[in-house]
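Subject: Flagellar protein FlgN

B.,
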Amino acid sequence: MVAALDAERQALAAMNIDALVLATGDKQRLCAALEGHAANDVDAECRGLLEAARHQNEVNRKVRNLLAANVAARLDALTRSPGLYTGPRARTA
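Prediction pasted inline below.
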């Protein structure tokens, strides 16, 4: 999982959509494999790797969000229509 997350980070950095799709597929397969294991079956070494994977996933999530915000800002600037690519906002009563 750590290797798949590292591949995802590299794909995000390079903005390589093909590599990102491959990394996403790898992550999904690994998550499906991990779902079948009970948490109490994990030893200390595996817990350390899982914690490293959790941290890397959080870093990747933040990078994805930054890239998405940057793309949205560029699209807004190009279209001169701020908020055109944002979802509808919930009304507050």
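The chain has one domain: 2-79.

T.
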